[in-house]
Structure to design on (339 residues):
């Protein structure tokens, strides 16, 4: 199994390598790939040093799987070139998520939509992934009518520049405007501004939650509204989620249902002050759910608190899990395409 990690020197790319190792993905040949300025650098994988290669060289190597975390413009240009030689691309950017004909996949929710003909597969947005892992079983049983989401998203989701800004501000180092990932300080601050503002006054991040949730749950009738906030937190994204169901529910039944699901850890013991936090989620692959309680202001309303490591389940782990599913179902392999 020849595997390329594209964008290997970036924040998510580094975590992807760690996840491939931790989950013991059967990599027989590892291809670290990055932009021209990083070609020739050394990266470590499974205790060995590997030389970063160019996109062109990686395509010529015809990997079985290429996991991309290099930005939308790079993916638009290069993912089709990898696909043309038979490589299956799992892309972590927003480039393909809402493109017709391209699957948007969270393995616990909708992996069964995949086939060997899917050569460019989209990894959803980090905040969407943890949301739908928790909501999918509830939607199946009780039918969600409306979702109201407020996110508390780690600055690490913006990338290395944001991490450097946070650390510099923490250390009292003044930055030039061009070195800042955000318009305002992130240290000891909250920014109700994730990604760019759109014509409807929502941010791009907020609308990703709307469109991607509907696509993954395969239901455009669900009403979804979101406010996304960037917070000075390591360890993951948190979400306050309010649901309105069509059907009656029992809170204890919901807790039991979520507890039974793969990839979910329920922490909900208010008598002992136990609930999900990024402190628990950091470096973990699961989605944590707690503060499960009835919304007493509407009929069939429910409140949830959902937390996950945005670099793990929100990005790298989900991509690797897609690759694991493809391998387990014999849906991947250049030889299958090129004989």
């Amino acid at each position: 199994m020849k595997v390329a990690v594209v964008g290997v020197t970036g924040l998510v790319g580094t975590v992807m390598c760690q996840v491939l190792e931790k989950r013991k993905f059967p990599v027989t040949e590892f291809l670290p790939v990055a932009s021209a300025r990083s070609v020739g650098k050394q990266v470590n994988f499974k205790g060995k040093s590997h030389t970063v290669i160019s996109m062109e060289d990686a395509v010529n190597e015809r990997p079985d799987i290429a996991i991309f975390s290099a930005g939308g413009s790079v993916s638009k240009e290069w993912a089709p070139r990898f696909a043309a030689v038979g490589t299956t691309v799992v892309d972590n950017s927003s480039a393909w998520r809402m493109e017709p004909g391209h699957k948007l996949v969270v393995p616990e929710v909708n992996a069964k939509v995949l086939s060997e003909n899917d050569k460019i597969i989209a990894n959803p947005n980090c905040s969407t992934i943890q949301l739908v892992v928790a909501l999918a079983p509830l939607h199946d049983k009780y039918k969600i009518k409306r979702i109201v989401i407020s996110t508390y998203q780690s600055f690490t989701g913006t990338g290395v520049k944001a991490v450097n800004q946070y650390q510099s501000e923490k250390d009292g180092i003044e930055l030039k405007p061009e070195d800042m990932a955000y318009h305002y300080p992130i240290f000891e601050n909250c920014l109700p501004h994730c990604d760019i503002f759109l014509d409807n006054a929502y941010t791009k991040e907020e609308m990703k939650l709307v469109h991607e949730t509907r696509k993954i749950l395969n239901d455009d009738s669900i009403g979804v509204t979101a406010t996304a906030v960037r917070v000075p937190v390591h360890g993951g994204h948190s979400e306050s989620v309010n649901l309105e169901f069509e059907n009656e529910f029992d809170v204890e039944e919901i807790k039991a249902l979520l507890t039974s699901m793969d990839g979910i850890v329920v922490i909900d013991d208010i008598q002992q002050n136990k609930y999900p936090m990024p402190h628990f989620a950091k470096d973990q692959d699961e989605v944590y759910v707690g503060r499960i309680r009835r919304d007493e202001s509407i009929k069939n309303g429910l409140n949830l608190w959902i937390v996950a490591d945005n670099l793990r389940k929100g990005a790298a782990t989900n991509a690797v899990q897609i690759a694991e599913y493809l391998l387990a179902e014999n849906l991947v392999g250049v030889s299958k395409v090129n004989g």
User: Anything to note?
Assistant: The domain at 2-95+315-338 is CATH 3.40.50.720 (Rossmann fold). The chain has two domains: 2-95+315-338, 127-308.
